[in-house]
Design brief:
Number of strands: 30
Helix content: under 10%
Bound molecules: CU-O-CU linkage, copper (II) ion
Strand order of the largest sheet: 10-9-12-17-14-15
CATH architecture of the largest domain: Sandwich
Number of domains: 3
Structural class: mainly beta
CATH topology of the largest domain: Immunoglobulin-like
Oligomer: single chain
Number of helices: 6
Length: 479
């Protein structure tokens, strides 16, 4: 289409009669310019004294002095103009986890951009093109585990809110000494059961292993200090559950209440009601809770299907409840814990379905035994093999987990379909992070390589990623 500059436009409008003049007055033009104006956000990374509420203040690394960083919330189609200022002692970048952005805005140091040096700034500018629950976090070194994360919410353009209240819950694991995690690891805490192996790994001067965490928070507060989620009897409550933890998979339970999963990693699914939500590092689930059981209830991590061994995380509190005593969780038969295999996707216009496959990559995930490295097909990034595809290729990634830990594998720049889901309707769920279970666990995903560039693909256990469990998906434009 030929571009109309202002002068040509006026001449054109003048010649074309009253209809055009009323539709395209300069005022209307002005408004459309305003509509495209971006939302300005400043993110400043700095060292900040933080208290998670457990009486052990320490120096965390924060965005804008707070844990979590400020919530970024926009409407679908809005542009974000985010000025990152680095007042940290290390180089840094920000990654917009889950949201497909142009490659140069993706925030992976030395892959999509030069990292921002201490004292420097960088402007991220992109359109929030797909609605959903996302997060942003530092993608440099171990900074995510020091506190550099926040929620990124893209609301649908034409939203009729089908709920009465909404809460965003960011779950985070902490070693509450300075640094939040990596410093604890450096100081030589040994994972239970690691014995001599743990000692060997550190003396080798290689990558860090995950620290022993001593605090688990929702929105930066431990259980004792966390403000209750308030609800009123009869409310339909939307919870956006986000896991930016570096090394913790949660099985989140809200006592007294089943929840209905509506979105997985921001993508809509057929409603699935469960008693607890299993959520790996990098994953997000939107769930709905019907407030029909007044009381004071624990929000906790359910381990081994037993509330007795769980960690307390927070409180759900009904208006008008005075008693300080918590209600007993009242499940008698087994808990229904969410599992990909029973989730069904929903077709949506943002993402084309994958109908067949052009390229298959098999990846063995291993590590944790005789070396400090975590590998894909025996190699640690940057020595791992690239996955090279052409733009538009339909790609299948098959994982085989030879290790004893779960690996939430995350692909940048794309949503993928999870193979093996959508058994009833045939519509598979779309996600961007998939937990591959330990001990010979398998998983497979398929995606259309339609976002050109070099994209990072890795385990979202930060300590595994930094120890090599990563590779590059190179999408080359056809010509
Ligand atoms: Cu959450 Cu490579 O990122
Ligand atoms: Cu891993």
């Amino acid at each position: 289409m030929k571009h109309l500059n202002r002068r040509n436009f006026l001449r054109f409008a003048g010649a074309s009669g009253a209809l055009l003049l009323t539709e395209l007055t300069p005022l209307n033009l002005l408004q459309s310019v305003y509509a495209q104006k971006s939302k300005e956000i400043n993110l400043t990374g700095s060292l900040t004294a933080i208290d998670l509420g457990n009486g052990k203040p320490f120096t965390a690394w924060t965005y804008n002095g707070q844990i979590p960083g400020p919530e970024i919330r926009v409407k679908e189609g809005e542009r974000l103009h985010i000025v990152l200022k680095n007042n940290l002692p290390e180089e840094t970048t920000v990654h917009w986890h889950g949201l497909p952005v142009p490659n140069s805005m993706d925030g992976v140091p030395y892959v999509t951009q030069k990292p921002v040096q201490p004292g420097g700034t960088f402007v991220y500018d992109f359109e929030a093109s797909v609605p959903g629950t996302y997060m942003y976090h530092s993608h440099a070194h171990y900074q995510l585990d020091r506190g550099l994360y926040g929620a990124l919410i893209v609301e649908p353009k034409n939203e009729e809110k089908g709920y009465d209240r909404e809460y965003v819950l960011l779950l985070e694991d902490w070693a509450s000494i300075d640094g939040g995690g990596p410093e604890a690891s450096k100081r030589g805490r040994i994972q239970p059961g690691m014995g001599m192996m743990g000692m060997m790994r550190r003396s080798a001067g290689g990558p860090l292993q995950e620290p022993l965490y001593d605090a688990y928070t929702i929105n930066g507060r431990v259980f004792e200090a966390s403000p209750p989620l308030k609800v009123k009897k009869g409310d339909k409550v939307k919870l956006r559950i986000v896991n930016p933890s570096s090394s913790t998979i949660y099985t989140l339970r809200i006592a007294g209440h089943p929840v209905t999963i509506t979105h997985a990693d921001g993508r809509p699914v057929l409603p699935a009601t469960v008693d607890a939500v299993r959520i790996g590092m990098g994953e997000r689930y939107d769930v709905e809770l019907i407030a029909n059981n007044p009381g004071r209830w624990h929000i906790y991590n359910l381990r081994d299907n037993s509330p007795v061994s769980g960690w307390l995380l927070g409180t759900l509190l009904y208006d008008g409840i005075q008693s300080q005593t918590y209600n007993d969780d009242n499940i008698t038969q087994g808990y229904r814990i969410s599992d990909y295999s029973f989730l069904e996707g929903i077709d949506e216009r943002y993402i084309k379905p994958v109908t067949s496959v052009d390229k298959v990559f098999r990846m063995n995930l291993s590590g944790g035994m005789m070396s400090p490295y975590w590998t894909i097909n025996g190699r640690a990034y940057p020595d791992s093999d690239d996955l090279s595809v052409k733009r538009g290729d339909r790609v299948r990634l098959e994982y085989f987990n030879m290790s004893m830990m779960a690996h939430p594998m995350h692909l940048h720049g794309h949503f993928f379909e999870v193979v093996g889901t959508g058994r009833v309707t045939g519509v598979r769920i779309k996600k961007d992070t998939l937990i591959i279970p330990p001990h010979m666990g398998r998983g497979a995903v398929e995606f259309i390589a339609d976002n050109p560039g070099v994209w990072f693909h890795h385990c979202h256990n930060l300590y595994h990623m930094e120890a090599g469990m990563a590779n590059l998906v190179k999408i080359i434009s056809k010509k």
